[in-house]
Amino acid sequence: MAVLPLNYMGDKVLRKKAKEVKEVDKELETLIGDMIETMYDKQGVGLAANQVGVARRLIVFDNVGLPYGTEPMVLVNPSIIEAEGKCQGEEGCLSIPELVEVVERAERIKVAGLDRQGQPVELEAEGLAARIIQHEIDHLDGVLFVDRVSPLKRNILVSKWNKIRKELVG
Ligand code: NI
Fold first, then answer.
1. Of 26, 29, 50, 150, whose CA is between 20 and 30 Å from 56?
2. pTM of this prediction?
3. Which domains does the chain have, with CATH numbers?
4. How far is the CA of 47 from the centre of ligand 1 (A)?
5. How far apart are CA 161 and CA 158, in angstroms?
6. CA of 55 to the centre of ligand 1 (A)
7. Is residue 120 within a helix (H) or strand (E), and if so which, with residue range?
8. Would you name the residues annotated as active-site residues?
């Protein structure tokens, strides 16, 4: 396994709509392992494949119901099939380090996809777990959390980010 370099807001791959995974093969299994290692190396709770430069529909996230790092979760071709309620909560993103803002998300969701063996799975999540999954699926559609706040807040975040990005990647 390897820690992969991250893409940051401003990198085009983060704005691409990721493509369906056709086959869960050895290459994908390696990518999954590397993404899990990268997420934990950066102390993140979730990571989408396009954040490491691969525009495929694959996300990994920490099972936040257990102590941090106990159970990495994997969803291939995830889609939200039910969503209920609304809740506000702070979000950050490994692709926009140092910035956080309150974002509204569905409180409870049901998600369908494939597990890391390529078997169909459905899972239900609420609160923080549901928030993380919604954030990561957004990534696969080229959407970042700054797109889900008011235009005023978005402008503030983007101008802060432009300074941070300059220091980070030049
Ligand atoms: Ni993110």
1. 150
2. 0.97
3. 12-169 (3.90.45.10)
4. 6
5. 5
6. 14
7. strand 120-126
8. 136
